[in-house]
Amino acid sequence: MIPFQYTKASDVADAVRLIAANGGAKFIAGGTNLLDLMKDNVERPTTLIDISRLPLNSVEETASGGLRIGALVPNADLAWHPLIEKRYPLLSSAILAGASQQLRNMASTGGNLLQRTRCAYFYDTATPCNKRQPGSGCSAVNGVNRGHAILGASTSCIATHPSDMCVALAALDATVHVTGAKGARAIPFADFHRLPGDTPHIDTNLAPDEIITAIEVPAKGFATHYSYLKIRDRMSYAFALVSVAAALEIKNGTIEEARLALGGVAHKPWRDAGAEAALRGQPAEDASFARAADLLLRDARPQAHNDFKVDLARRAIIRTLTQAAHGTPQSQSNKTIQ
Amino acid sequence: MQDGAVHPGASPSPLPEKVSVTLIVNGIERRFSVLPWVSLLDALRDHLDLTGTKKGCDHGQCGACTVLVDGRRINSCLTLAVMRDGAHVTTIEGLAANGALDPLQQAFIDHDAFQCGYCTPGQICSGVGLIAEGRAKTADEIREFMSGNICRCGAYPNIVSAIQQAMGAKP
Ligand SMILES: Cc1cc2nc3c(=O)[nH]c(=O)nc-3n(C[C@H](O)[C@H](O)[C@H](O)COP(=O)(O)OP(=O)(O)OC[C@H]3O[C@@H](n4cnc5c(N)ncnc54)[C@H](O)[C@@H]3O)c2cc1C
Ligand code: SF4
Ligand code: FES
Ligand code: FES
Fold this sequence. Notes:
By secondary structure, chain A is of the alpha+beta class.
């Protein structure tokens, strides 16, 4: 690990001041991603600004019936927060599908959004990687790319975003609240993470001098018809090959509102307005689900080693929508897929 | 990630200073100075001579370094000692009270829940955290919420039985 200076921010304004004054500085919250990457010499901040004790750790009701989740609420606390379990069980379920209880106890809500890809070449400083070192090339394009993207990739980078929580937040139409030197602003979740294009080193639209203060989820929580299904190489404590968050509103067997977000398939949680529109007004049954899956995957381009992801995603979408429609969400402890 | 284990080629100026840290470890206040990049794990093992907590991967992937910080189980390899100033830390050395083993320690012995024992301190600290959370009840749930602790010897079935015993559930 490289040497670095360590300092504690006293409040949000102080944190913004400190980061704006030092281009080599980074915030540290839970540390579970940043320290991991620093040990491998992938991240090399000259200063760590500790924000872990800032008072951004509450979950509060908003005037419009939603919830405002502080950026430092630990993932474990969020998953088990009574209001989240009751009104946003999709979010709770997705969080519990990720990492381990020890890591969820440490990981923060804001840090989870900013976790970096698990592409092995990104971690390996001996290999070219455009995300780690812009312009050096992408080792994965012609390398081992079984875990990589099938949607929205570019010739510069085919990495995926590894978060489970973010897939649920995308489906729920969350908003990210940030504060920077120029003041506060709100970023719709869909605009927060970026596609790689020719700038894969920039993961998100958060400015370098901005801090995430909160994530807001709107009133609609889809607590009746939801499911989060995560497919991975082992039963637990592994990143997704494909994951699906599905949320439906159903009246007399007809889908009135539909949300569908995928993890493990793209550089950001993947939503497709066309696929969701195709579900609305349709009967909540297999044929509708299959049509939505085909639409969502119409432009899928697998890599040399992950052809299987397209079919896996198709089946996972249908299965997850079925679970949501039946009101039988995937259990995150009994892994039998019903 | 030891003191002075600076990556070659990194420009070290200006060299950071040691930071004074106070931890309440197993009920005893410990004051020491460390460089900012010393993990809680290395601080426990190298500065406080508490070598019960193990280093497996140093990357959050195995759970061998699990300790309880303010009552919650965490991976001590992925947090900095300086970030935990003032915290209460419980390690495997601190679980026995008044000469009596923690019920989970006894249950690990009763169920032969280890072979080489390298993962065991982390397993037990994690299990104590799990029981305190009060969420996992069924065997499936215990397995899921213990998945952050890898056992290369494969003692998993016995670990689940030990936790069930300590939870007061029927094995
Ligand atoms: C072994 C292992 C397995 C894992 N498995 C999964 C999994 O299956 N699913 C999953 O979703 N995740 C998984 N994770 C990732 C984990 O969820 C993330 O590491 C965690 O959410 C990051 O949060 P943190 O608070 O620790 O971030 P940190 O490491 O503290 O920070 C990460 C980044 O965010 C920045 N940052 C943090 N907070 C803010 C803020 N408020 N404002 C601006 N910038 C900020 C930091 O500067 C840093 O660049 C796993 C991690 C490990 C180590
Ligand atoms: S896929 Fe992206 S992260 Fe992986 S090697 Fe290519 S550029 Fe780097
Ligand atoms: S040593 Fe910390 S998780 Fe492996
Ligand atoms: S007892 Fe050997 S690793 Fe678990």
